[in-house]
Please model this.
Amino acid sequence: MSGSKRDDLLRKVKPFREILLDSVKMYGDKTALQIRRSGKFERTSYNQLYENASNLAKMLVKLGVKKGDKISVISKNRPEWAISYIAIHLTGAVVVPLDPLLKEGELYNIIEKAKVKMVICSENYIFMMNGIKDKLKTLERVISMDESEEIDIHTLMEEGNKLDIDLSKIPIDVDDLMVILFTSGTTGKSKGVMLSNKNVVFDIISASEVVKFSNDDIFISILPLHHVFEATVSFIGAMYKGATITYARSYRPNEIIEDIKDSKATIMLGVPLLFEKIALGILKALDNQPMGVKAILKPAFGTVGFFKNTVGINFGGTVFAGLREKSGLSTLRIMISGGAALKPWVADVFERFGFPILQGYGLSEASPVTNVNPLDNPKNRSIGPALPGIEMKINNPNSDGVGEILVKGPNVMMGYYEDENETAKILKDGWLYTGDIGFVDDDGYFYIKGRQKNVIVTEAGKNVYPEEIENELLKSPFIKEVVVMSKINERTGREEVHAVIHPDLEQIPFYAGKDGKEIANDAMDEIGKIIREEVKKLTNNLATYKKVKTVSLQLKEFEKTTTKKIKRYVFKNPKN
Model:
């Protein structure tokens, strides 16, 4: 069954160039990209997008770019990022997207390792990139996305329009390397994930079988485009269906909501932290309603939840239609959460108000999406079933059916760039070893317990999944962030469960709104007592071997990746 479906989907796979050309032919005058500039939306049609990218590609060829060369792109989300990405692809070169939040030394290492020939960047990166170019012979040129004294893409597009270069003669095959994604994840060690045209395009086609979208849809692009989730689904996926992409101005929830409302966006991808902030905003809006309105809506919120959870019927769409309209999110018909686990209460809030939110799963090495909950039957405590044409299984399951999740399919990466040893560790007999521990239910929905490398093994051989305990602790209004890990008890020499907690000081009753660093020692003692009482209460129903034995507090917010995952590797040798 899976093999037959996979074959059907593979027959639809084309290089990204052909996918884009199909959309240009069908939707040429339709808006492909839009961004708010000087108070109004600046729009680029599919015809203009392809013409601009083609002209830039011609000039890149004239400047010496050849098939297989590595070209980087770095900036915040904007139309020029998309134009540059497409232009690089049209030359047959390989795109190496760069994370704008990386430090100069980290960017230098990636550019050096990938032997990047040119960098196309926003003006604020020109100085840094020229500094890197002075140190690296392999980096030949830095091109600005903005009009400047440097060579810039706007001038190159004008010059490219005069060139007689037939880009269609550059051979691009589905098996050609399309993009190298350097991801440090949460381990700190950067590896280059190599994805072919087939990997990426198959993943889009497969995902679109489950999450139905069309040329009538408008994506709101929020997550950074260098990240594979946003690039595959909200960029290349949108291009595949002829949809419109709206670039959000910032990560501020109020500006995101305003951009959604004004663009009439219908699809939004996000990470759990973003959805959590929006959910809190919705609850606050409910609480701020006039007393009479609140007296009606609050009980209704509970009643809707009761019917949803007991008989599977959700009246939220009807009951809260007015509040949803006021929220500015009423045009959204699909919200997809990925990148980390979505807290159950967040999904519950959106569902009760009638917002369709789906939890999915994937990893860069799988292009990235492997699972998503179906819109007609979501189980948002799960990551959903495997996408069509993708195989998944639990490796060496224990008595509870829990084991490592493995993935196989045309979406699985070619390997890590110039790193056969690391590739061999994760790719075996066509299976991708995800490093995630989970199980599958009778309906084929997969569930994540945690990361294999994070598992704490007790002396009795019991497995403790930190993420499970973290989810319990985050139910406390006093706990903003938490990392659960193992710690050696210096007195007994035994491994114990330890929690590093970032308290939500605004929720602690006696906290007067000062900066955390100014809190007096006696106040810190009180905060510690409150947090330890919360930990004890919330883990009381867990097995003895799972209970948190020691706690340490951290007043500053935890360090995170671009997609808002906590960098767990930072937490070493925790102190009590």
